[in-house]
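Our preliminary data section would be incomplete without showing what the modeling component actually yields. Below, a chain of 195 amino acids is followed by its predicted structure, encoded as tokens that our downstream tools consume directly.
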Amino acid sequence: MADEVMIRAAVPEDAEELLEIYSPYVTSTAITFEYEVPSEEKFRGRIRKTLERYPYLVATCGGEILGYAYAGPFKERAAYDWAVETTVYVRRDRRRMGTGHRLYAALEKALKAQGILNMNACIGYPEKEDEYLTKDSVAFHEKEGFRMVGRFIQCGYKFNRWYDMVWMEKMIGKHTGNQPEVKSFPATGKQEREE
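Predicted structure:
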């Protein structure tokens, strides 16, 4: 029987393994507009900061981390508390196997429990696909129920070429006139079996 995929909260000690997943996206793609691979210490700090309030999840199978997803503030002003920006990365040799979907499903569940209403994704978008960037991320988000809400033209420059950026959103809760406050994410490290 094959090992099952488990979703759990990330811990700062995952930084080395998560950075191994992220680094090729920095050095070989325009999926992230980051130019330099962050240090392990800086990456560990990013995990810690996210977990102060939001979910940061990893998918594991047989003890190996396959990918990760997390949420962060959409904007810093209090009026935006019910909206988050989401991110997902999967090991490049483990893409198209359902890991991203499992991570986003678990992330959405955690965000709903916090009282988050809007999931937003900021995505690099090529005018014409090339070796650094395709439209796959937009297609993935569409399958996850996101819709396109905005496009910024030639606002990201990487690998000596210009890329557009798009925003996609998914509403996951009811917007009311007396909205309850958002709760912080409990970083318990508890694992959940994914089917």
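The domain at 6-182 is CATH 3.40.630.30 (Aminopeptidase). The chain is about 25% helix and 30% strand. Preliminary results of this kind motivate Aim 1 of the renewal.
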